[in-house]
Every structure is written in structure tokens, then in C-alpha cells.
Amino acid sequence: xxxxxKKIILCITGSIASYKAVELxxxxxxxxASVVIILSSSASKFISPYIFKxxxxxxxxxxxxxxxxxxxxxxxxxxxxxxxPATYNTINKIACGIADSLITLTVSASGDKPCVFIPAMNGKxxxxxxxxxxxxxxxxxxxxxxxxxxxxxxxxxxxxxxxPEIADIIFELESVFKNNRLKGRxxxxxxxxxxxxxxxxxxxxxxxxxxxxVAIANEAAKEGANxxxxxxxxxxxxxxxxxxxxxxxxxxxxxxxxxxxEEFPENALLIMAAAxxxxxxxxxxxxxxxxxxxSPNGAxxxxxNLIKNEDILKLLAKNxxxxxxxxxxxxxxxxxxxxxxxxxxxxxxxxxxxxxxxxNIIGSDENEGYLLKKTSEFSAxxxxxxxxxxxxxxxxxxxxxxxxxxxxxxxxxxxxxxxxAELA
Length: 424
Ligand code: CTP
Known about the structure:
Mean pLDDT: 92
CATH architecture of the largest domain: 3-Layer(aba) Sandwich
Number of helices: 17
Number of strands: 20
Radius of gyration: 26 Å
Bound molecules: cytidine-5'-triphosphate
Distance between the termini: 21 Å
Shape: elongated
């Protein structure tokens, strides 16, 4: 709940999309933010201030003369200013330093407080070179823009200019309150469960929902990382994935392995949250298998030939470059710490997070478990010297010195943040 108790000045300017600010307001409230509304005079032609007043909110008109010095007080007490929708006129005015309304005055008095714009307009207006030049020249440390969505616009044209999804706005707003501790770091994350097809309609898989990997990917992107997410068979209608993430969709072990091998060299860190099939079907049938073909004489059993899959983590950890970090997950039902310790060692991982999957974790929004990591002594040795140079002493240290940290049951997003803090 990054937005909990944050004071947001929600400035609504006049556009056919003004009504969408009402939904944004409701989500901000649900997130625990306190919201003050400024409705521009043109926005008040599209929506009524009574919508917000009936929820008990303070609503200001943008008449700068109505309450003298309101802009100073508003700017002083705000944690962030959100302009949604932000019209062509308002963005250009703010970019040029014009302050002739309560909204533009409040922005002008807001010092280093973040200001998030949600542009929404006709596609030609959005791509207009004056607007684009102004957006580019506004300081990226203070002014944040959520890209409009593409599609059919209110005027009937198709293009980029639609009010974006509320989830994209909340993502950007949460990002501005995060420290940028992963800024520029390239992180490869896998999520979901692989599927090994038997024929075109049947497969062997596992129950992984992908929620943990997606939570880590979103959190890392919020903290400024350049994230690539390889998602295996995730239900995208249930999970939000930021548009800032490079998303690659894969299905089988083979697809996943090829994709990781291609992406890994570009990344400083691999977080392998995907549940990978340990076996693949030896020969996938091109046609749907008929039960008569399996048991022509009425025999009740069917045999499936499986082949063992290579361990992707082990392969990558063994061949990683100096400075690259490999973080694995382990799903266990018994002897969880001992088993995780074994996996950490056998796969030569830097970190492993282990959970007891018998505790209703798969598919849940919550998770708990233990993080096992090598101590700084070994990590330092690993980063300063090539792997072959690491001396016997360091390897002995590795054998003996593991740090184990317990994480109580919590929301997967919160856990993602804590795990990333360990890596920052
Ligand atoms: N993993 C992998 N390649 C595989 C199997 C697993 O890279 N062929 C990775 C998983 O993504 C996870 C870690 O190894 O990060 C541990 O996976 P897990 O399923 O807990 O254990 P396995 O190594 O498959 O061993 P087992 O099933 O015997 O517990």
C-alpha cells in the first residue's frame, strides 16, 4: 500500500475523458490515499463537482481568485499532484511556465513534489510536435507521464490518445514514491509454469500461477530496473503486468530454456520464479490422441514416454559471467531448509527462496518462506575474481557460511519488495 496516507491533489482538466478521473479517484481512495480535487472550469462542463462532494471531498474550482493563496497551501501539503486527464492545453501551459489557473498555479508552487500527467486527447494532438517537444524538455525528475493507450478515440479516429488503464496510472504513481535503488539494473525474471504437450490439446504442467514472479517483475520495474519477464502460461486477465516490462510469453520447457539462454547474457541478475517441468514428453503427437488408439483391446492403462529436462538454473549458474547473480526458488513440502540448501549448493546459486508449498501458497496472493544466501565474503570473492580463481578458502567459506532469513506470511507484492531489497 505505497499510496496509503499520501496526499494527492487530483487535477481534472476538460476532456471527454474527464469522467474517467472519477474511477481513478475511487481507486486512489481504495489504496488509502487522501485526495483533494481541483476541477478546471472546462472539466466542470463534463463532470459535476458534486460527484466528489457527495463522497465528502474538498473540491476546488480552478478560479485562482476564489480562495487567495490556495495554490500555496495545496502545493505545500501535497505529496504528489496528478493531472488526469491532462489536456494538450494544460501540458503545454505548464511546460511554458504559464500559471493562470489554480491547477497551473499549484504546479508552479510545488517545488520538487512529483507531478504525474495522464495525457488524453486526439492522436494527432498527442503526436503534435510542440506537445512532444515540451514533454521531452520537462524535467524527468519531477514530471512523469503515463503514455496514453491506443485504440478508437472519442472523435472516431484510431490512434494513441486514450485515457490509460487505471492500473497503469497507479503503477506510475507508486513508482514516483519508490526510491530508484534498481535504476538501470537489467533483471531477467521468469514466472508461471511450463507445459509439456502430449498432443495439441493435452499437456502436463503444474499449478504455478506466476503471481510471485510477476510481483517481483512489477516491483523491480517500479524501482527503476530494466525488466524482462519470461511468462509461462500466465492468465493475463487476472494479473497486471506493467507496460514498462519487456514481456516474452513462452509455453514449454524447451521454449523457456531457449529464451533464457538468449536473454541472460544481457542481464545482471536472473530471478527464476518459474516452475519448470522436470520432464518433457518424448514425442508429442501432432494429432489429438484417440482413446481407441491407446487401448484398442479395452486395456485401461496408457504409457507416456518422458525424457528428463536439463536444469536451466544449474546450466546458467555454471556459465555465468563475473558479476552476474542467479536467484532461484524452491518448492518443497518437507525438510524445506535442508532441501533448499542442497539446491543452492548443487545449482551454484547466489540466492534461493524456499517455500513450503503445502501451506496453501500456490495460486495464493500470499507467500512465506526462507531466503538462503551466500555470505558477503563469498559474494565478494565471486565478484572480484573469476570463478576459476576463487581460492579454496572461499569455497570452504561457502560450504560453511550461509545466511538464512525467515519471511513471515505476507502479500506477494510486499515479499517481492523485501526480496529485491536483499539484492539492491
Ligand atoms: N529449475 C530449472 N530447471 C529445471 C527445474 C527447475 O531451472 N529443469 C529451477 C526452478 O525454476 C527453480 C529451481 O530450479 O528456481 C528449483 O526448482 P524446484 O522445482 O523447487 O526443484 P527441482 O530442481 O526441479 O528439484 P525437485 O523437483 O526434485 O525438488
